[in-house]
Specification:
By secondary structure, the protein is α/β, with parallel strands linked by helices. 38% of the residues lie in helices and 15% in strands. The protein contains 11 helices and 13 strands. α1 runs antiparallel to α7, α2 runs parallel beside α7 and α9 crosses α11. The mean pLDDT is 96. Belongs to the class-V pyridoxal-phosphate-dependent aminotransferase family. Csd subfamily.
């Protein structure tokens, strides 16, 4: 199987990720923070080790400002539902994944005002458009760092400079960029950073987290046991326990820590260079096929390694099915949980697009096999 669906979930995982998870299961799969014995202490130590490693990756000073969740969707729900109140106004974009759009639509029914800025690429979101959209009650700007449909990267530094100047908080969905782009929450003035573990961080599914600015408080999404402070009737006031009710996924978090370690050892620049070369190579090859149209890719721009395209005369899902069933090539076809992005691209009525997304373990040979298969299907 040629796997080209890394924007959905990276695969294969680095060997050290599997090894780290196996080590926990075999040697100390106790309940972290729930008991005083050495196995529980070892599990808690492993969780903090990963928390500190992620904090270092995002230039977060205090690891306890990193809250573990099961995925980026839980993180954005915690951020949006925990911060916004009826009467608040939030600004977002048409490029958002449903993990931001659906919580916002839920909150809209509760009295939160939502504005969607219709943009196609990161360059469309300029300073004037942003500032002209602010209202007196604007409390938050919630944006994806990169589109999961086209890979275009939004100018987070510019957005953060403007929001901080206006006293507005900034939530960034880094699902596609954590582990691929350099992220510094302080210099980029990010107040809330949602990330998932199973994509470019090379961890397992069921892992993710949210950075919460130390001066920012949220209403917890979950209430329950936190291991300590059992005498309190309310959620503990300290972090990360305030936002981490229930037993943490020690096995998954250990794997996530090993994934981040893999990134540290490999280097972001090397990862970026390899994956962008593959994306550029694919775009060049597709440009030579008249019946294929690529959407959103700008070769001279720094983008996530995502290439989405349409094949004339074919539904996107049909192409995806044929590639899987007859050529053993895995891609993602359809609307990619981002219907507004497809509306802005004009690709909704045609069933969306075929999306190819690269990871570090892909090769030029994978691209050649895909291009050969597409030509075969078209002919």
């Amino acid at each position: 199987m040629i796997y080209l669906d890394n924007a959905a979930s990276s695969w294969p995982k680095p060997p050290q990720v599997v090894k780290s998870m196996e080590e926990v299961l075999l040697n100390y799969a106790a309940n972290p923070g729930r008991s005083g014995h050495q196995l529980a202490a070892k599990a808690a130590e492993k969780i903090f080790e990963t928390r500190a490693r992620i904090a270092k990756l995002f230039h977060v000073k205090n690891p306890n400002d990193i809250v573990f969740t099961q995925n980026a969707t839980e993180s954005t729900n915690l951020a949006l539902k925990g911060f916004l109140k009826p009467g608040d106004h939030v600004l977002t974009t048409s490029l958002e994944h449903n993990s931001i759009r659906r919580p916002l639509e839920f909150l809209k029914a509760k009295g939160v005002e939502v504005t969607y800025l219709n943009i196609h690429t990161g360059k469309d979101l300029h300073a004037d458009l942003l500032e002209q959209s602010f209202r007196e009650n604007t409390k938050l700007v919630a944006v994806t760092h990169a589109s999961n449909v086209t890979g275009t990267i939004l100018p987070i530094e510019m957005i953060g400079e403007i929001t901080s100047r206006h006293g507005i908080r900034l939530l960034v969905d880094a699902s596609q960029t954590a582990g691929f782009c350099s992220i510094d929450v302080d210099s980029m003035k990010i107040d809330l950073l949602a990330f998932t573990g199973h994509k470019s961080l090379y961890g397992p599914q069921g892992t993710g987290g949210l950075y919460v600015h130390p001066e920012l408080d949220l209403v917890p999404l979950l209430h329950g046991g936190t291991g300590g402070y059992s005498e309190l009737i309310d959620q503990p006031p300290i972090r990360p326990e305030r936002f981490e009710s229930g037993t943490r996924n020690t096995v998954g978090i250990a794997g996530l820590g090993a994934g981040v370690n893999f990134i540290e050892q490999t280097g972001l620049q090397q990862i970026q260079q390899h994956e962008q070369q593959l994306a550029n190579y694919l775009v060049d090859e597709l440009a030579a096929i008249p019946s294929i149209a690529v959407y959103g890719w700008e070769k001279n721009e720094f983008q996530c390694p995502i290439v989405s395209f349409a094949v004339e005369g074919f539904d996107a899902n049909e192409i995806g099915f044929i590639l899987d069933a007859h050529y053993q090539i895995a891609v993602r076809a359809g609307l990619h949980c981002s219907p507004l992005a497809h509306d802005s691209l004009g690709t909704s009525e045609q069933g969306g697009l075929v999306r190819v997304s690269f990871g570090y373990f892909n090769s030029e040979e994978d691209v050649k096999e895909l291009v050969h298969a597409l030509k075969d299907i078209i002919n």
